[in-house]
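Data availability (excerpt). The following record was deposited with the supplementary files.
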Amino acid sequence: MKAMIVGGDRIDTTRRALQASGYADILHWSGRKPADLIRPLPSGVDHIVIMLDFINHNLARRVRDMARERQISVAYVGRKCQGGPEVATGRPGAARALHSA
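Predicted structure:
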């Protein structure tokens, strides 16, 4: 399975949580490059984690909309999110901040 993290500089904890949940391939977009707004969503992505405190509203909205078109699950994670890295895994039964798809 493939997951994608959008935003954030230090993603090691989130990456480890996703790997522990069975995601073998994890992609990362920093969200800091203007070109991120026009990048196509990679194929084969099963889950997306959006680090809200590290990207702008336009990128968050665009990634959310692309995920909805492909019916990909999305977890929104903020700095003050309760539940730690397991929030980002998107697994049933795991605590999450918000879920939209």
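Summary of structural features: Residues 57-70 form the longest helix (14 residues).
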